[in-house]
Amino acid sequence: MLSRATKDTDVPDAWRRGIAFILDGLRTEAAHPLPTAPLTSQQLYEVMIKVAAEQ
Q: Using CA atoms, how far apart are residues 31 and 34, in angstroms rounded to an integer?
């Protein structure tokens, strides 16, 4: 769902950050640097609107 919601934004690789959080949570060693920067407030708002419209 995250990849589908972010694919039409100006940050199409944003899904990689969410996956990195999940994978780091499963690792026994220390966390790794995240592959992308966080979404801006505007980008996050647009993603939430898109997800809400799909439900």
A: 9
Give the integer Cα–Cα distance in Å for 3 and 1. Answer: 6
Determine whether 14 is exposed, middle or buried from the number of CB atoms within 10 Å of its CB (0-12, 13-18, 19+).
buried
pTM: 0.50
Residues spanned by the domain of 42: 2-54
Domain count of the chain?
A: 1
What confidence tens digit (pLDDT) does each residue in 6-25 have? 666 677 777 888 888 888 88
3-state secondary structure the chain: CHHHHHCCCCCCCCHHHHHHHHHHHHCCCCCCCCCCCCCCHHHHHHHHHHHHHHC
